Amino acid sequence: MRPESTAIVTGGARGIGQSICVELARRGASVVVADLDSEEMAETKELVEETGQRCELVETDVASSESVQKTVEWVLEEFGSIEYLVNNAGIAGPTAPCEEVSTEEWEQTLAVNLKGPFQMCREVLPHMRAESFGRIVNIASVTGKRPLPNRTPYATSKMGVIGFTRTLAAEVGEENINVNAVCPGSVDGPRIRRVFERQADETGQTYEEVRAEVEREAARGELVDREDVAGLVGFLCSEQSERITGQDINVSAGKVMY
Ligand SMILES: NC(=O)c1ccc[n+]([C@@H]2O[C@H](COP(=O)([O-])OP(=O)(O)OC[C@H]3O[C@@H](n4cnc5c(N)ncnc54)[C@H](O)[C@@H]3O)[C@@H](O)[C@H]2O)c1
């Protein structure tokens, strides 16, 4: 990564976003964590600082244009430039048949997952254009490529993220700004365990049966680690990936192959 560079990672307080913050710091960037609650981000700060890099926490709601604007202004004042942007913040949205999804649930899911990356890019792009350099990575999902019944708002938002990624990549490529999407499969951790437990309750299966079924769907017969996702994000921010843009790359242990 570029020396003295700065990365903003949205939703970096925990989960995949936290691993991305640490990966980018190990590769040499200062990291700004943009998440809802600064207390929750404290652990990420500690982990990033262990790498020797600077880490700042900025309370940000990516669904609010005002909040996004303030965050980007603050980062530019503090750091002078923004080379890397990782749009990772996301919510699962409701699990329900389409006709039972409320307008509020629909709007909230799309506001965080799709409007959020758009608003972050809109604020950061003028500065990346001025520097003729930028690497943007949007965290989509394999659900951005194939249907997931009873999750219409989430799947629609992630399909939108892939469309947004391709379109923006075509707009800014000649200015040395790359835009890619990373599509994780089911990532092992507390969140996916809760999903399996809920599914087990609903179907009368055991937790182990539900988990084994999901694992069997992947070519490697396993779930994904959050570090696998972070590793790809790091690569997409590195010199080795200079001519990779507009792509949506799966990290799914071979669950999805297109
Ligand atoms: N975990 C998985 O299996 C999986 C699979 C595919 C894709 N993804 C995607 O990866 C990304 C990270 O997922 P995760 O599992 O680590 O999630 P997580 O719930 O553990 O973490 C998400 C983070 O985003 C933050 N956030 C939520 N709304 C926000 C907002 N409005 N503004 C700023 N921050 C906000 C949360 O506070 C949290 O820290 C998401 O975009 C998710 O859709 C996850």
Automatic annotation (TrEMBL):
<dbReference type="InterPro" id="IPR050259">
    <property type="entry name" value="SDR"/>
</dbReference>
<dbReference type="GO" id="GO:0032787">
    <property type="term" value="P:monocarboxylic acid metabolic process"/>
</dbReference>
<dbReference type="InterPro" id="IPR036291">
    <property type="entry name" value="NAD(P)-bd_dom_sf"/>
</dbReference>
<dbReference type="InterPro" id="IPR020904">
    <property type="entry name" value="Sc_DH/Rdtase_CS"/>
</dbReference>
<protein>
    <submittedName>
        <fullName>SDR family oxidoreductase</fullName>
    </submittedName>
</protein>
<dbReference type="InterPro" id="IPR002347">
    <property type="entry name" value="SDR_fam"/>
</dbReference>
<comment type="similarity">
    <text>Belongs to the short-chain dehydrogenases/reductases (SDR) family.</text>
</comment>
<dbReference type="Pfam" id="PF00106">
    <property type="entry name" value="adh_short"/>
</dbReference>
